[in-house]
Write a structure and sequence with these properties.
By secondary structure, the chain is an alpha/beta fold. It has helices at residues 34-41, 56-65, 69-72, 87-93, 135-140, 152-157, 165-185, 216-222, 252-282, 315-318, 344-352, 367-370, 430-442; strands at 10-15, 44-50, 97-102, 117-119, 160-161, 199-204, 213-214, 291-296, 319-320, 322-325, 334-341, 380-385, 389-394, 397-401, 409-412. It folds into two domains: 10-375, Alkaline Phosphatase, subunit A; 388-458, 2-Layer Sandwich (Arylsulfatase, C-terminal domain). Helix content is 28%, strand content 16%. α7 packs parallel to α9 and α8 (216-222) packs across α9 (252-282). The longest helix has 31 residues, at 252-282. It is globular. The two termini are 38 Å apart.
Length: 458
């Protein structure tokens, strides 16, 4: 019996809050991202990739499960139930060593979520998951001002050159990753490398997530080069607000500092990824035989339309970078313009590794698009924030539903790439609006929501 060849090694690189258009390969000639540019030039770039939720925790849960928020019951700041199927769990079943380093942002009691090894973890169980907690006792110690984060206003005003918490976190995550890979492929001390088995290794960094800090050299480089994204907000009651729901009133100089720090963090992430690639090559690995994925959980508005952070369905917030590189199988430098979703990564990795794709996913394999075949592709991507904010993008039309919080929104990105003109009530688009409302109901949302909803129906 002929031995079956080893399944391919996979390197999954991830950043947090990386706006898709701030990368050299995306046409930005200010930010320095040579490593991402290399991956893009020798891989497949998805120009219209979207997050299933423009918010850290649900976005990450949905990506891991290949399911939309409603399907996996993560409609909001919620975690998966313990033991829920993830792509790391699925690959572990096929004898992959599944290893992650850095930020996972799982706040429930299942801190592994299918990974077999966690390095430099951000492992933390939130208060809401403490079993049989005494509510009165927790209330005694909760400060009146809340915990954890500054206002958007202060985040911008505090921007400066500094090694902050996330810079230290990422440095540690990279250090332990380099050490792990050294032991996995070489192990000079014990001489027991594990490289005879396939590896799924994920490095997930926190930067360029605020606070807006970066090292002094990068800060000085970008401070007089970065564009100012800030402009006036629209009149929509939801789209006009930053994530915290409060207006931001800061000087252009403060915005410039925050933007310079943000650019500096992206360059830092790029440099760290280069260190990982270099280490693998120094260990004798042929990266053309590896599947390499790069993405982020969501974007950052950076003051565009007058708002900051994420949670909105503008391109700057809901769009994500996505590159998949495997020159052994796919043409270098291919660009895919169809609408895709982070949920699609699950099925894609399964097909690439010749693993059976589980049923009941909202995940579609991107392999046909990577091969240049879009004949059967449903050109749609959806995203959800909270239980009643929903986006559907089909072709170049982007529909948004806000329940009782505000009127429907429709953008035509072909004629309005800046998303400044709401055409939801224009007669020319009335048929399109009916199509979107019907699809909204099929997806279990809106006034006519399908009460038997199970999944997206792909």
């Amino acid at each position: 019996m002929t031995a079956r060849p080893k399944r391919p090694n996979i390197l999954f690189l991830m950043a947090d809050q990386h706006r898709a258009d701030i990368a050299g390969y995306a046409g930005n000639n200010i930010v320095r991202t040579p490593v991402l540019d290399y991956l893009a030039e020798t891989g497949v770039v998805f120009n219209n990739a979207y997050t299933p939720s423009p918010h850290c925790i649900p976005a990450r849960q949905c990506m891991m499960t290949g399911q939309l928020p409603k399907t996996c019951n993560c409609e909001g700041w919620l975690d998966l139930t313990p033991g829920y199927r993830t792509f790391s769990h699925e690959f572990s079943r096929y004898a992959y060593n599944t290893v992650c380093a850095g930020k996972l942002h799982h706040l429930g009691t299942d801190q592994m979520q299918g990974w077999r090894v966690r390095l430099a973890p951000d492992a933390e169980v939130s208060d809401r998951h403490v079993k049989d907690k005494i509510e009165e006792e927790f209330a005694r110690y909760y400060p009146a001002q809340g915990t954890g984060k500054w206002s958007n206003q202060r985040e911008i005003e505090e921007a400066r050159p500094l090694e902050g918490l996330w810079q230290k976190f990422d440095k540690t995550a990279v250090t332990v990753s380099l050490d792990y890979l050294e032991r996995y492929f070489k192990d000079e001390v014990y001489q027991r490398p594990q490289s005879h088995r396939p590896l799924l290794f994920k490095l997930s960094l926190v930067q360029p997530h605020y606070p807006f800090f970066t090292d002094p050299k990068r800060f000085d480089y970008y401070i007089n080069r970065v564009p100012i994204y800030q402009d006036d907000p629209c009149s929509h009651p939801v789209l006009a607000l930053s994530q915290q729901g409060k207006p931001v009133n800061v000087s252009k100089e403060a915005v410039r500092k925050a933007t310079a720090a943000y650019y500096g963090m992206i360059e830092t992430v790029d440099t760290y990824f280069g260190q990982i690639l270099d280490r693998l090559k120094s260990l004798g690995e042929n990266l053309d035989e590896w599947i390499i994925v790069y993405t982020s959980d969501h974007g950052e508005m950076l003051g565009e339309h007058g708002i900051w952070e994420k949670t909105r369905f503008y391109e700057g917030s809901v769009g994500v970078p996505l590159i998949i590189r495997w020159p052994k199988k796919f043409k270098d430098g291919r660009v895919v313009n169809e609408n895709v979703n982070l949920c699609d990564i699950f099925a894609t990795l399964c097909e690439l590794a010749d693993i059976e794709i589980p049923e009941n996913l909202d995940s579609r394999s991107l392999v046909p698009l990577m091969q240049g075949n879009n004949s059967n592709w449903i050109n749609e991507s959806v995203s959800q924030q909270r239980k009643n904010h929903f986006m559907i993008k089909q072709d170049q039309l982007k529909y948004q539903y806000y329940g009782e919080d505000g009127p429907e929104v429709l953008f035509d990105l072909t004629i309005d790439p800046g998303e400044n003109r709401n055409i939801a009530e224009e007669a020319e688009y009335s048929d399109n609006m009916e199509i979107f409302r019907k699809r909204l109901a099929q997806l279990g949302h809106g006034p006519n929501a399908d009460k038997q909803y199970k999944n997206a129906g792909y």
